[in-house]
C-alpha cells in the first residue's frame, strides 16, 4: 500500500479550511466578526459544512474528468441543498431575527413558491461561486501540477461525507428547534429535485471534449481584475426584480466570456485561480459596508475586513506565481 502524499493532504486540508472562510467569514456579517477565537471555533461546524462538500465536489470532478461547468453545477447543487433543505433560509420570511431580512425578501417574493427570487439567486450563486468554486480554484492554483489529480483516497472521501452529514444534521436540527419558518414537504421535494437535475447535468458533461480556440488569453492580473469587477457588480445589485435580472445577466455574461477564454491553449490553472482571487477580493471589499449582527466593535470589524481582503490578494498572488502545466 502506498503512503499518503503529504502534498495532496496539505492541499485537501487547505481547501477544508478555505471553503468555510470564503462562505461565512469573508464579508464579516456575523457576530463572530473580528473575534479570532470565535472564528476558529466556528470552523468545527463550518469546516464540515462547507469544506467537506468542496472536497467531495473537487474529488468527484477530478476522478471523473469533469471540467469547470460540471464543478459549478455540483456546487450549485450543494447550494440548493444547503439553502433549501439544511438551513432552509431560501424559504424563510424572517431568518435568525436579521433586521434587514424582510427588505431582501419582500420585493421579489413569489407567493406560490414561498421564496424570493433575489435571495434564491444570491444564495445559490453565492454558494456555487464563493463557497465552493472560488476556494477550489484557489487551492488548485497553489500547486498546478496536482490540480488535476485526486487528493484523497477512499477513507478520506468517506470521512468527508460523514462529517458533512453530521454537520448538516446539526444545522437542520437547530433550525427546526429555533426558527418559526420551516420548509414544506413540497419545497423540500422541489429542492431535492433541483439538486438531482444539477447533478445529472454535471455528470452529462463527462464525455464532452473542450474545443480548442486560437488566441492568447489575457494575463492573470487582467483576469483577476475582471473577476473583481464582476463580483462587485453582482454584490451591489438591489434586491428587486431588476436586480435579479441584472444578476442573472452578469452570471451569464461572465460564464460565456470565461468559457470562451478557457478554450485557448494558453489558459491555465493560474488564470482560474486569478479569476477566483478577484471574485474573493470583491466579496471581501463588500464586507467593509456590511453591518455585523450583534455587538461588534468598529476596530474589530475593520481589522477583520482588512485581514480578509489582504488574504484574498495574497492567495491570488501566490497562485499566480506558481508554475505548472495544468
- Total domain units: 1
Structural class: mainly alpha
Figure out the total of helices: 11
Oligomer: single chain
Helix content: 55-70%
End-to-end C-alpha gap: 27 Å
The helix/strand order is: HHHHEEHHHHHHH
Describe this structure as you would to a colleague.
The protein has helices spanning 6-25, 36-64, 68-86, 101-105, 117-141, 154-178, 185-204, 220-235, 241-262, 269-286, 298-321, and strands spanning 109-110, 115-116. Helix 2 (36-64) packs across helix 6 (154-178), helix 5 (117-141) crosses helix 11 (298-321) and helix 10 (269-286) packs antiparallel against helix 11 (298-321). It is globular and about 50 Å long. A hairpin with a 4-residue loop joins strand 1 (109-110) and strand 2 (115-116). By secondary structure, it is an all-alpha fold. The protein has one domain.
Summarize the structure.
The chain has 326 residues and is mainly α. It has helices at 6-25, 36-64, 68-86, 101-105, 117-141, 154-178, 185-204, 220-235, 241-262, 269-286, 298-321; strands at residues 109-110, 115-116.
Task: Break the fold down into its secondary structure elements and pairings.
Layout: H1 6-25, H2 36-64, H3 68-86, H4 101-105, E1 109-110, E2 115-116, H5 117-141, H6 154-178, H7 185-204, H8 220-235, H9 241-262, H10 269-286, H11 298-321
Antiparallel strand pairs: 1-2
Helix pairs in contact: 1-2, 1-5, 2-3, 2-5, 2-6, 3-5, 3-7, 5-9, 5-10, 5-11, 8-10, 10-11
